[in-house]
Amino acid sequence: MQALTYVLPLLVTFAPALAAPSRAKEPRGASQCGQYTSISTGTYTIYTNEWGASEGSGSQCSQINSLSGSTLGWQTTWTWANNSNNVKSYTNVESSTTSCKQLSAIKSITTTWSWRRSSYSGSSIRANVAYDTFLGTSCSGAQAYEVMVWLGVFGGVSPLSNNGYPPTPTATPTIGGVAFNLIVGTNGATTVYSFTAQTNATNFNGNLLLFYQYLETNEMLSSAQYLQSIQAGSEVFTGSGAELLTTGYTISQT
User: Fold this and answer.
1) Looking at 24-38, 66-80, 140-154, 225-239, which range is the least confident one?
2) SS3 string of the chain?
């Protein structure tokens, strides 16, 4: 979940988190702030994961807004400054409806994600809206591959690239009706494939398995690899008074 950037500031909004009591399974409206915290409702858990906080100064909060059937509404708000080319956090949601399996054993990973970024007092926003997934030779093995699907880009951030910055795409596939640029990078021993939407996809409805099948056909990714984890959230570099609001998120693996 690392990336490099070039600059194009944009504006976003801020909305304060709502307070709520704390329990093992949090009720709707539960909120959290902190470097490594989590709250859960239904099959979903939201993690703050401020893994790069030492690279800057600021804070971030997130909250559950609603759960209707299998559809989750949630949001994250932040203010981060300094070192604008470094990720400060990846607040994200995971679901217990997904589990580690070999790609060859997975039939589908259907997902929907409706989100929006509004504009009023926010400034200096550099962030993405992205699925982040990891694969390895076993469920507990080293992460051999990272596959990201970027649905939104703000402030000119870009994925890790082995082909310069701004990156020159390796390919421009259309998957699930959305046109993407495929950027290939390297993070240590991990090969990073980033599918970046050519225009922000604020109402995504697709099958994540199609991205792995594309890599199997075109990049020699083996279907024997295990899909270890699937997260959906925002890598944040900087921003003042910023908000990412998800009005509806679902995911299901078969």
Assistant:
1) 24-38
2) CCEEECCCCECCCCCCCCCCCCCCCCCCCCEEECCCCEEEECCEEEECCCCCHHHCEEEEEEEEEEEECCEEEEEEEEEEECCCCCCCEEEEEEECCCCCEEHHHCCCEEEEEEEECCCCCCEEEEEEEEEEEEEECCCCCCCCEEEEEEEEEECCEEECCCCCCCCCCCECCEECCEEEEEEEEEECCEEEEEEEECCCCCEEEEECHHHHHHHHHHCCCCCCCEEEEEEEEEEEEEEEEEEEEEEEEEEEEC
Task: Name the active-site residue from 26, 50, 235, 243.
Answer: 235
Q: Is 146 considered catalytic here?
A: yes
What residues contact 254, with CB distance under 8 A and at least 6 apart?
106, 107, 108
The pLDDT score that the predictor gives to residue 13 is 32
CA nearest neighbour of 115 among 251, 11, 232 = 232
Say yes or no to pLDDT of 18 above 60: no
pLDDT at 118 over 70: no
Among residues 146, 216, 219, 243, which one is catalytic? 146
Q: Please, which pLDDT band fits residue 47 given cuts at 50, 70 and 90?
A: very high
Average pLDDT, the chain: 89
